[in-house]
Design goal:
This protein has 122 residues and is mainly α. It folds into 2 domains: 11-51, no CATH class; 55-118. 54% of the residues lie in helices and 10% in strands. It has helices at residues 20-25, 38-43, 56-89, 95-114, and strands at residues 11-14, 28-32, 46-48. Strands 1-2-3 form a 3-stranded parallel beta sheet. Helix 3 runs antiparallel to helix 4. The longest helix is centred in the middle third of the chain and has 34 residues, at 56-89. The protein is elongated and about 65 Å long. The two termini are 34 Å apart. The relative contact order is 0.10.
């Protein structure tokens, strides 16, 4: 069985029935989906559909970039909506303009999130 280190997280990669307990015990369990057993797929946190283990470094970079974009999205939307609320409370922003401002903020978040599409595998 896995022995967790005192520092750092444990990642386990497996594809068979005998790997299921280790996949479950690990901090992050990764199953090979194409040839993997059903039990391994059910207990894993991540399933590699194409069984291309060489993609793992790219997937780690992609997930870090996604988390960064999500944090930026949250901060921008909070700032944008806070300014809109303050302007509405002061009477400067009409209800219709407030609704439009909210929709513009939502579109900004979606467009910023769309930037993840341009992440390359290399």
């Amino acid at each position: 069985m896995l022995r967790k280190a005192s520092t750092g997280d444990v990642v386990f990669i497996g594809d068979g029935i005998n790997d299921a307990p280790s996949l479950k015990a690990a901090d992050v369990g990764i199953a090979m989906g194409h040839r993997g057993s059903r039990m391994a797929l059910d207990t894993a946190d991540i399933v590699l559909v194409h069984d291309r283990i060489a993609l793992l470094p790219f997937l780690v970079r992609l997930s870090c970039r996604m988390v960064g974009i999500i944090k930026i999205d949250i901060v921008l939307s909070l700032l944008f909506n806070t300014v809109a609320i303050v302007l509405s409370a002061m009477g400067t922003l009409s209800p219709i303009m407030g609704a439009l401002t909210h929709n513009i903020g939502s579109i900004m978040v979606v467009l910023l999130s769309f930037c993840i599409v341009f992440t390359r595998e290399a």
